[in-house]
Amino acid sequence: xxxxxxxxxxxLLLISVISFGKNTNAQEILLTDNDVILNLRGIFxxxxxxxxxxxxxxxxxxxxxxxxxxxxxxVNGKPxxxxxxxxxxxxxDVNVDYEKEAxxxxxxxTETLKKSFPEEYKKMQKISKGKFEVPATVKIKKVLPYTxxxxxTVYAYATELKRVDGAKSKITEVKTKKSKDLEEEFTxxxxxxxxxxxxxxxxxxxxxxxxxxxKESKIVSKMDNGTVVKxxxxxxxxxxxxxxxxxxxxxxxxxxxxxxxxxxxxxxxxYID
Length: 273
Known about the structure:
Elements: H1 2-28, E1 29-31, E2 36-49, E3 66-69, E4 80-83, H2 98-116, H3 118-124, E5 129-148, E6 151-163, E7 170-173, H4 182-186, E8 197-200, E9 206-210, E10 219-224, E11 228-235, E12 238-245, E13 257-264, E14 268-270
Parallel strand pairs: 4-6
Antiparallel strand pairs: 1-2, 2-3, 2-5, 3-4, 5-6, 5-7, 8-11, 8-14, 9-10, 11-12, 12-13
Helix pairs in contact: 2-3
Organism: Leptotrichia shahii
Pfam families: SH3_3
Protein name: SH3 domain protein
């Protein structure tokens, strides 16, 4: 009798673990009629130095709103550089007034900080150089892995940023002198340089990139074997990936085209540089 009770307990435990894993996965990816929303929990950080706005291209720190997902599988554990307005870095508007756009960005950042972290914002204004961090949740509408200077920065269009209920924040004033090595000061040595990559490898010679993680979902694109894609996260057995297509004579594109969608893991293999 005791042995049967023990087996029943183990069975219930296994079901709970499996269900928890699925629910956690489902909570991180919200599927709406028109969008795939990443609903993430983690640490929001912001480092700033009012006396020195110049940073190296590999530095994703000072002046930026950074979000470190709790789930390290997402974007290979790299921080998400939050943008509070939609953006298109692959196809920039050459006629845009960058000063006006920067002012708009600054305004929305200020409004968001005041709304989400009002007390912390007041303290930050009194500090010339410092660090701010707090457990938070964020909703991401778009992710863009963007490579420059041989380093991939992951930009993310955030539509919502909130403190985790009851979470305490931390503000630290930094009084150290500026490092002679800017690269060393602004770069996290433990941050991976790029996202995980996978190569399309299907017996059919191609794989379908789908809008949602189901075989019935709309096909976004057909990707030939050998196509290398960047891994963002997963939903069950489906990998949510990113890829870009550049204009050339074969595709007659007028601008760079970005692809985001789901490919079943059975159609992919790990890519080794």
